[in-house]
Amino acid sequence: MAVTLRDVAERAQVSVRTVSNVVSGYEHVSPQMRERVNRAIRDMDYRPNQVARTLRTGRTGMLALVVPEIDVPYFSELAREVIEAASEVGYRVMIDQTGHDHDRERELLLGNDRSMLFDGMLFSPLVTKSELLDMHGATPERPLVLLGEHEFDGRYDHVAIDNVQAARDAVGHLVALGRTRIAAIGTQPLEEYATPLQRTAGYERALADAGLDRDPRHSTPAAHYSREDGYAAMRRLLESTPRPDAVFCYSDLLAVGAVRAVFDAGLRVPQDVAVVGVDDIAEGRYSRPSLTTVSLDAPLIAREAVRLLTRRIEHPEAAAEEVVAPHRLIVRESTGG
Amino acid sequence: MAVTLRDVAERAQVSVRTVSNVVSGYEHVSPQMRERVNRAIRDMDYRPNQVARTLRTGRTGMLALVVPEIDVPYFSELAREVIEAASEVGYRVMIDQTGHDHDRERELLLGNDRSMLFDGMLFSPLVTKSELLDMHGATPERPLVLLGEHEFDGRYDHVAIDNVQAARDAVGHLVALGRTRIAAIGTQPLEEYATPLQRTAGYERALADAGLDRDPRHSTPAAHYSREDGYAAMRRLLESTPRPDAVFCYSDLLAVGAVRAVFDAGLRVPQDVAVVGVDDIAEGRYSRPSLTTVSLDAPLIAREAVRLLTRRIEHPEAAAEEVVAPHRLIVRESTGG
DNA sequence: TTGTATGCGTTATCAT
DNA sequence: ATGATAACGCATACAA
Q1: I need a surface site. Which of A95, A298, B99, B144 has the fewest CB within 10 A?
Q2: Which nucleotide's C1' sits nearest to the alpha carbon of B51?
C-alpha cells in the first residue's frame, strides 16, 4: 500500500526517527544522512500520512468556516479571502453551511458534531442569538472566532463591524442627498438578532440626527438577506403612502432586489428612490445602476480572523481579542453618482 | 484531556470492545449493556475521536472540492449544492482554490499536496489541459471526479456538460432573433483548454448552420471569466466595424460585464446588442436587463458528482462512469424577452 | 455476546 | 546525531 516512514527507514538503512527528523526539517541531522534519506524518499515517492501525524500531534491543519449559505456573495467573497489567508499560514479550510437552522448552528458551536477534524472554527452567523453563544459555555472547547457581530463580551475572539455606525453612514448619505422619506429593508421579524438590531439602531439614530420622523411602516422585515426578499420588501414599500424616496438595505443582495422592484414598478433609481446597501459585493459594481454601499473590507476581516484563530490555536489561554474592521461608504449610481 | 473509549469502558465496567460496539451501532449488544454504556457515554460526554478512527479505517468522511475561485457565482452556487449533497450522505467538504495556477492544479491532481485528509476529490477546472490529466497517470491514486469537462476517456468519473450543444443552442437563439453579426466572448488566448474550445466549436457550428459568415475579429478572448474581462472584451467589440448586433458570452459573468459595457457606450441591450450567457447564475435573474442564458442545472451536477465520488470511494475498481448533465436555454430580457 | 491484544503511521521520550 | 520504543484513540481479528 502506501509507503511509510518505516519503509523509507529500511531502504535508507536508518531508523524511523532519523527519517522523521528529515521529513519534519529537524535541525541536527548530518548532511550525508539527510541526503541519504532524501534519496530514499524520492525513490519511493514517500508522502507523510497526515492523519497519523494528526493523531500524534493533535493538529489537523484544517480550519472550519461556518456560514449560512456559501452562495451568498458576501460569504463566498469572504470565503475566498479566508481560504487564501489560511493557505498562507499552512491551513486548509472546510466549509459548513447552517442554512437558517438554529439547531445546526448550535450543534456546530457546541462541538456536538460527529467529526471535528479541524483545529479551530470561524463562525460567521448571518444572525446570531446571544443565547446561542451562552450555550457554548464560558470556555469554548475549541478555538473559535466570531465574525461580523459586535457584542464583544470578552469571552471570544471577534472580528466585528461597527454596524450602528455603518448604518448611520449609509442613512446619513441619503439625508445629505435631501431625501426625507427614508425606508429600511432588513429588520428581523423576531427581534433577537444582533446585526439587524444594530443596523436598525443606526438607521433610527441617523433619522433622529437629521430631525426626520420615523414612519414605522417604512421599517420592512426581510427574513433572509436575499434578492427575493429585497424585491418583495420593496414592492410592499412602494404601496405605502407617502411612498419612500430612499431605502437603506441591510445587505447589497436586498438592495439588488429592491432596485429591480423599483424599475418593475415603472419608477427609477435613484431619481424616484435612492438605494444604498451594505457589503460591497462585486455584483453591485456592475449592476445598473451600480450600487452605493457600505464596504466591509472582506480581505481584512478574513486576514484578521485567521490571525486571531491561529493565535488562539497556538495559545489557548490568551485573552480574547476584538478587532473592529473599518468600513466606508462608496457612492455609486444608485444614489445619484 | 479528552474522554476516550478506554475511560468510558472503565466507567461502565466493560471492555473497550463493547463500548466501541455500542458507539458504532453494532448489532449484537445486549440491551442492558447498551444502556449501561450509553449512560457512561452521556455522563462523561464522550465523543469519538474522528482522527483515530480515520487512522484505523482510512476514511476521513471528507471530500475536497477544487475550484478556480470560490467567489465566482457559478462555483459558489455549485459549492452550495455539493456541500448539501455531501452532507446528506455523511460527508463534509473542504474547498481548495487553484486560482489560475496550473502548478497548483497539478499538485492537487497528483496528490503531491502535503495534507490529503479527504477520501476523494471533486475537481472543477475552469480550464483544464488534457496534459494535466495525463500527468495524473492512468490509475488515479485517489478517487477523483471531474466536473464540467467533456472529454471522457474512460479513465475518470465525469459529470460533463455538452458544451458544443449548449453553445449551439445559445447562438441558435440569437440567429432565430434575426441577428446576423454575432460575436463571441470567452475564447482562450492559448487554445488548449477544453471548455472554451468546445463552446467556440458550437458557436462556429451554429453560424455555419445559419449560413452566416464568421468574422474572426468577433471572436474575443477573455483570460478569466470575470465581469472585468467581459467588460473589456465588449468594449473592443464595440469598436469593430461592422459592430456586432449580438454576443454569445461563454459565462454569465462575462455577459454581465458585456452588458454594462454596451450601456456605458450609450447603446442598449437587447435593441442594439443582444447578449446571452452560460451558467444561469442568480445574479442574471435580477440584473437589468435580466440575462438570457444556458442553464447548467448545478444541483443535478452536484448530486451526480457526489454520487459518483462516493461510489468510487466504496468501489475503487468500478468502471469509470460519465454523466452528461442536461442544459436548457432560458430566454430573458437581454435578448428581448 | 464480550474481552484481549495488535496495529494504523507518526512524533517524541529516553537513551546512547 | 541517531536508534529503539512508547504512546496517540480507535477498530477489529481472534479468543473465550
Answers
A1: B99
A2: D9
Bridge partners for A328 per DSSP:
A295
Grid cell of A42 as nine digits: 524520492
- String of DSSP letters for B185-225: EEE-SS---HHHHHHHHHHHHHHHHTT----GGGEEE-SS-
Residues of B in contact with A263 (CB under 8 A): 288
Q: Which of B77, B97, B259 sits opposite A83 (nearest CB)?
A: B97
Report the CATH number at residue B13: 1.10.260.40
Q: Are A48 and A170 within one domain?
A: no
Digitized pLDDT (tens) for each residue of chain A, 337 residues in all: 688 999 999 889 999 999 999 988 887 888 888 888 999 999 998 888 888 989 898 889 999 999 999 999 999 999 999 999 999 999 999 999 998 888 888 777 777 665 678 999 999 876 655 555 665 554 556 899 999 876 767 778 999 999 999 999 999 999 999 999 999 999 987 756 788 899 999 999 999 999 999 999 999 999 899 999 999 999 999 999 899 999 999 999 999 999 999 999 999 999 999 999 999 999 999 999 999 999 999 999 999 999 999 999 988 888 999 999 999 999 999 998 6
Q: Three-class SS of residue B307?
A: helix
Helix (H, G, I), strand (E, B) or coil at B236: helix
Domain boundary among B39, B56, B73: B56
**Within 7 A of a protein CB, which nucleotides of strand C?**
1-5, 7-13
Number of domains, chain A: 2
B227:A69 CB<8 A: no
Q: Which residues contact A285 (CB under 8 A, 6 or more apart)?
A: A291, A332, B227
Question: Which of B48, B52, B69 has the CB atom closest to A55's CB atom?
Answer: B52
**Nearest residue on chain B to A63, judged by CA atoms?**
B94
Q: Are A220 and A183 in contact (CB under 8 A)?
A: yes
Q: How far is the CA of B6 from the C1' of C4 (A)?
A: 13
Residue A249 covered by a domain: yes
- Residues 133-152, chain A, CB closer than 7 Å to nucleic strand C: none
B85 within domain boundaries:
no
**Longest C-alpha distance within chain B, in Å?**
87
Indicate the residue among A14, A35, A56 that finishes a domain.
A56
User: How far is Cα B6 from Cα A69, in angstroms, rounded to an integer?
Assistant: 39
Residues in chain B within 8 Å Cβ distance of A116 = 47, 50
User: For residue A33, which phi and psi values (nearest 5 degrees)?
Assistant: -60, -50
Does any strand C atom come closer than 7 Å to the Cβ of A115? no
- Residue B262 maps to which CATH number? 3.40.50.2300
Residues A99-151: tens digit of each pLDDT: 888 888 877 777 766 567 899 999 987 665 555 566 555 455 689 999 987 67
B47 touches chain A (CB under 8 A): yes
Q: B51 to chain A nearest CA, in Å?
A: 6
> Contact B61/A95, CB-based, under 8 Å?
no
Any domain includes A47: yes
Range of the domain at A35: 5-56
| A282 located within any domain | yes
